[in-house]
Amino acid sequence: MFIYGRKTVTTTRFGHVHREIAKKAAVAKVRCSMSEGKGVVESVRVALEENDFHLIKEITSFINIGDLSDEEIVTIMRDARKILHSLTLDFYGLVNALLSVKWKNRSLDAIQAYSEFTVDILVARNAYITVGIPNLILNWIPRYKESGDWTNGSPSKRVHTDLRTVHGLLNRILAAVPMSFDVVIDTITAKFPYFKKPPHFTICYIYNVLWLMKSEPLYEELLLQLVINKLLILDVNAPREKIEELREEVDEDEPEEIFQMDDVNTSPKQAQPLDHPIGHTLDICLLQLFKFLDDKFRPLLNSDDDQRVSKNRFFKILIQIFDDIILPSHDPHHVQFVIFHVCSIRPAYEKSFLSFLWLKVQNPNGFPVMRHVAVCYIASYLARAKFVPLSTITYYLQKLSNWANTYINDSDEFGGKSCSLKANMVFFSVCQALFYLIAFRARDLTRNAKILKLLSSLQLTRLAMCHFNPLRYCLPTVAIAFAGVARAHQLAYCHTVLERNARRKMSTFDGDEELKPDERLDTFFPFDPYILPISGEYIEPNYLVYKVHDLNETAEFLATNTMRQKRGHGEMDEEDDDNDFIPVEKLQKLSELSNSERFEKQYYYGTSPGFNQY
């Protein structure tokens, strides 16, 4: 047991005072020696000739703990440059101290002296690259009190000037010693801020990585892969449900204005940052990435062949990263919109992306789960991308239908297959994608007779009625919405299948009285609504929000009128006469649809993105 008394406390206090006095005395001694011409040069000479490193230790301590002035930094750096050939690994501590000098907020002469020494020592002595590069990368990490210097991912003028010096040094070192990039990548990966750090830490770091990508295009693939990896970590730690809960709480706390006056002179309301700290970090980082990709892919007026080749090469890199990182990730929320935004810039990118996904779906040697995910991406992309032409949608509807019908033909030819979900996951995914697209884009797909004729050729009835029973494994809202649209336009009649499936969903027990859970396709829609407010400015103009089909709306209106008549309303309102222009055949079809909607509401089991809320 240790007992601390007054004597111990006093001794500790005086010990600290003595150390401070000794430190100041050592600093004063070195300053005096430097004024007499016994600086770095003399200390190295004594160490080499007399094997006495006492002066080296003193000047190293002076550089580490002394509050150096700008003139002292200039003098020390210039003296050190004179003896670069002598600074072997025996002087590791001295060189480490020189490279660790705090040069920010110094005079231009001090910054210039530090920069020249750093480049010269790392080029002349490659062994010190593992010391110099980390010291430069550490300048990418801001201090806690510097959060005000970063506004929506953009640094202040002072911070930008300091970072320009760092990147200038990195570019010079990489140009002189190309192999040093391995150290750069390892250092960037090792020093990446923890995702729970304050937002400006990660935002600043991502900003600098993207800056390095601009200046060093040769290393784009490795750097972009690192950025996507880190953003995915943020994405999975900022779930959509948590962000929406916090947003609802904020909306409830805000006072509701009774009278709101419209002012034509007011500027548009700016997006408010999220209260979720990790979600806010992800929002700003994606904003930076979208800006970078915009500059990278946006076509120029006078672009030459080399620029076009460079853009195409970078897009192939992006597709490869999507294949390696994003596609295998389980249920990401926002990072996948990177490829969504890039495809909106140029139609050729959209075609390449869809072709890449379709090849994965068709590959019989691929993992069924990956083929299933690829189908989900195709369906969600075609449903949500406003810029996709209708011809592309119909083209992939035909591809999906042909593949599914070929699958049924093969199963009939070879004596049938097991109808289990595990054995036919890709088939059920393709069928659900087909149903989802028709239900989601019903307004576009039913606007004229030509497209309706194409839909009639997809053999939807055969798909819905086949022995595999794909509607059983689809999400309920997808199946119900498709059934309504298909029946309204006489494409297929699926409600008998839905009724039979609904009866089978009743709880059943086997011989051991264990509950058998109902099998259902584990589906996600990767391009569900983008809820990050600040970076959303790049997504919203090209994003399609689901709107209820006009037939459904009219059917609901007719159903309401029918119920009113049954309750004894003898007279109809004047507004009811507005239906006189609707043909009798269409009224009958809408009436049948209204009856089906009552069934749909009766067997409503959950929500599917798009159909109910968006």
Q: Tell me the span between the first and last alpha carbons.
A: 68 Å
Please count the helical segments.
26
Percent range of helical residues: 55-70%
Strand and helix order: HHHHHHHEEHHHHHHHHHHHHHHHHHHH
Q: Could you say which structural class the secondary elements and strand pairing correspond to?
A: mainly alpha
Q: What is the arithmetic mean of pLDDT?
A: 81
Question: What would the principal axes of the Cα set say about the shape?
Answer: elongated
Low-confidence stretches at least 5 residues in length (pLDDT < 50)?
Answer: 6-11, 507-516, 551-587, 589-609
Biggest sheet character: 2 strands, antiparallel
- The total count of strands amounts to 2
Share of residues in strands: under 5%
Rg estimate, integer Å = 34 Å
Widest sheet, order of strands: 1-2
In oligomeric terms, what are we looking at? single chain
List keywords for this structure.
two-stranded antiparallel sheet, elongated, mainly alpha, single chain, 2 strands, 614 residues
Explain how this protein is built:
By secondary structure, the chain is mainly α. It has a two-stranded antiparallel ribbon. Helix 10 packs parallel to helix 13 and helix 23 packs antiparallel against helix 26. The longest helix is centred in the N-terminal third of the chain and has 30 residues. About 12% of the residues have low confidence.
Draw up the topology in text:
Layout: H1 6-35, H2 40-50, H3 54-65, H4 70-82, H5 92-99, H6 108-124, H7 129-137, E1 150-151, E2 154-155, H8 157-176, H9 181-191, H10 199-215, H11 220-236, H12 240-253, H13 277-297, H14 305-326, H15 337-343, H16 347-362, H17 368-384, H18 390-413, H19 425-440, H20 442-445, H21 449-456, H22 460-465, H23 476-488, H24 495-504, H25 550-566, H26 584-602
Helix pairs in contact: 1-3, 2-3, 3-5, 4-6, 6-8, 7-9, 10-11, 10-13, 11-14, 16-17, 17-19, 18-19, 19-23, 23-26, 25-26
